[in-house]
Amino acid sequence: MLPKRLVLDSWISTGTFPEFTDAILRLGAARASAYVCCANVHMLVEAHHQPDFRRILDEANLVVPDGSPVAAAVGFFHHQHQERVAGMDLLPALLTEAARRGQSVYFYGTTDEVLTAMVARAQRELPALRVAGAYSPPFRELTAEEDAAETAAINAADPDLLFVALGCPRQERWMASHRGRIRACMLGVGQAFPVYAGLEPRLPRWARQLWLEWAYRLWLEPKRLWRRYLHTNTQFVYLIGRRALAYLAGRPHVPAST
Length: 258
Known about the structure:
The protein is of the alpha/beta class and 258 residues long. It has helices at residues 17-30, 41-49, 51-58, 68-78, 87-101, 112-125, 144-157, 170-178, 192-197, 205-209, 213-220, 222-248; strands at residues 4-7, 10-13, 34-39, 62-65, 104-109, 130-135, 161-165, 185-188.
């Protein structure tokens, strides 16, 4: 797997965009029951405060630097260039390469409307892609019987890649709890589903390069996201600033134990 570097208290995988896509597809081909997290500011702050969630990130096969600040922090603290590898870019790239390599995919999460639009686009643009299935689970905690039935259905469909969109941190906890139970590489890609489906627009590249994607999402969903962004963005700036001052003063950082 790709090497990892410490940002705050979480280990972030490093590499180029093609290296990430190849590593994920190799995990899928191996049917290794692996999982991949796409780390943004919110996820790293959650991991800093919650040891059990930090353990989930630590044990992921890959932790993708999804957020621009996360990629920039890798560069600052470890003296290496790290590009952002956004889940919204990773999803279509993986589908394209999966079609070329003859690998199958499964979409799990979000709503029936989004899934229908996603499958329609994939079949239209990538006719060689094998879509093994798509399922929108209930927006509540599943019973043990329901979870066992869904797990059996996914395994029966036998996908190489399982894309999961349940929202952070639910999708990461779900993937970790299903490692060893689902024979696929699981990827938590959250908001990439409605964007790929064409039901939610994405900022142009120049605005993404200015780190404005969070502001755009806040504008789209202010009631749901304003408290999260006010808390997590402020916390991240404070924590990274404190860590940077210690780093410049030559004081080594000891990772928090899980």
